């Protein structure tokens, strides 16, 4: 009798254990596994190609140097003593959410040192956390790497690959052979230095003459991390292979532009667009503008002289000792009007070199070095279309401003970087 009771007890006990395990599996383990599978299999695709809005604008939020570590447990650097105890990576996340909310950009560009490898225990986890506000916003976002991203558990190729697979990311590890935005027909170009060299097209406003072609080109470059030159440690630099790829891409757009121009003259609704450029021969002013994004400044900025500075210039330019001719390449391409960089956290200025603007993002992240009492900041870039008699035409103006994480997101240092109407005389001798 007694043994029968204990046998029943044992049976009940086992049933209980098995039921519990089953429940645990259903509720926790398998739901986790399913989520993981979803992440691998179904990337939430952003709408491509990117497009100007029907109000004739396209806005980019530049986020430089977030320096994210492990989240809540990673302390802030260079904040006031009174702020220190209540400050972590989560303040960086909060600032990003607020910037997205107030500006509602069409694209978010992260210009490197997104994570601070030395403080990140698990690179993948830090990446998912740091880009979470962008992913949640469902706004397309693009990233390049800085010199610190790879100092954790993933190398540069792995980081870029993961970034390219994340929801709403338009980042690519390698550029593609085709300029067209049909992803099916694209082949990656892998014989190029670095990871995260790619270009994005921004097509004209819906219903306008340029609604099916790129009128603003965005170039992303990997400026690398560190290097040793003749036994001396320095930063890496943008290589010949990257510049020649860029030169090719830009040339192809110019060919398209000239064809587009010839066509445009048979179109009724031209207005200002035609006034800006009377003859088909003078194709240069008709060239569609481009913007470039990378992390480490180029030595030409240090050499200067850099003109028309707007913003703060409080830090020596930390760049490579090797000048690989980036500025010369940009000047010869003719389409790059402005370049957006990071790396030197306490510089946030725009300055002009040979007709091309170089703009720092200023430090965004709380775990990156900065100046206590000098609020973290972000840059916004807005391209604006010119109007024909009725319809939107090509890009007419490129504007930029910054905002502070000072509680009210103060907007400051607004300036026009490029204006099609005035470019003809401003920087030509
Ligand atoms: C960081 O965030 C906390 C919580 O929202 C806030 O109380 C604190 O003031 C923030 N610190 C800084 C330096 O912005
Ligand atoms: C753009 O493409 C769409 C769809 O193919 C077409 O209906 C439209 O006419 C095109 N617009 C222009 C301006 O070429």
From TrEMBL:
Under InterPro entries, the record lists: Calcineurin-like_PHP, Metallo-depent_PP-like, PAP14/16/28/29
Q: Which GO terms describe its molecular function?
A: hydrolase activity, acting on ester bonds
| Gene3D superfamilies registered for this protein in UniProt | 3.60.21.10
Superkingdom of this entry's organism?
Eukaryota
Among Pfam families, the record links this protein to: Metallophos
**Protein name from the UniProt record:** Inactive purple acid phosphatase 28 isoform X1
């Amino acid at each position: 009798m007694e043994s029968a009771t204990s046998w029943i007890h044992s049976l009940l006990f086992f049933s209980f254990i098995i039921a519990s395990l089953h429940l645990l599996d259903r509720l926790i383990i398998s739901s986790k596994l399913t989520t993981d599978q979803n992440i691998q299999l179904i990337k939430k695709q952003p709408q491509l190609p990117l497009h100007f809005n029907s109000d004739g604008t396209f806005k980019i939020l530049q986020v430089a140097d977030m320096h994210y570590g492990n989240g809540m447990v990673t302390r802030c650097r260079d904040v006031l003593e009174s702020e220190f105890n209540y400050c972590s990576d989560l303040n960086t996340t909060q600032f990003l959410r607020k910037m997205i909310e107030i500006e509602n950009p069409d694209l978010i560009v992260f210009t490197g040192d997104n994570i601070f490898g030395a403080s990140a225990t698990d690179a993948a986890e830090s990446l998912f956390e740091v880009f979470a506000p962008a992913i949640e916003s469902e706004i397309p976002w693009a990233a390049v790497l800085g010199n610190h991203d790879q100092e954790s558990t993933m190398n540069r190729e792995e980081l870029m690959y993961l970034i390219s697979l994340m929801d709403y990311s338009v980042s690519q590890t390698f550029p593609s052979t085709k300029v067209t935005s049909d992803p099916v027909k694209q082949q990656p170009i892998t014989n190029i230095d670095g990871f995260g060299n790619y270009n994005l097209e921004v097509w004209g406003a819906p219903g306008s003459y340029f609604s099916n072609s790129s009128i603003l080109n965005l170039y992303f470059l990997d400026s690398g991390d560190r290097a040793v030159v003749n036994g001396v440690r320095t930063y890496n630099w943008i290589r010949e292979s990257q510049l020649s790829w860029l030169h090719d891409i830009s040339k192809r757009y110019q060919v398209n532009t000239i064809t587009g121009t010839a066509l445009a003259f048979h179109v009724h609704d031209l207005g200002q667009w035609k006034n800006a450029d009377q003859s088909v021969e003078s194709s240069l002013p008709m060239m569609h503008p481009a913007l470039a994004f990378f992390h480490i400044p180029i030595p030409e900025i240090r050499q200067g002289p850099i003109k028309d500075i707007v913003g703060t210039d409080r830090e020596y330019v930390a760049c490579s000792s090797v000048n690989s001719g980036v500025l010369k390449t940009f000047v010869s391409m003719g389409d790059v009007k402005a370049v957006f960089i990071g790396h030197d956290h306490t510089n946030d200025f725009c300055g002009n070199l040979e007709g091309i603007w170089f703009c720092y993002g200023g430090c965004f992240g709380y775990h990156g070095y900065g100046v206590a009492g000098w609020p973290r900041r972000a840059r916004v870039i807005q391209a604006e279309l010119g109007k024909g008699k009725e319809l939107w035409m090509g890009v007419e103006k490129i504007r930029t401003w910054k905002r502070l994480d000072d509680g009210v997101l103060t907007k400051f240092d607004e300036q026009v970087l490029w204006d099609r109407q005035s470019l003809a005389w401003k920087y030509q001798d």
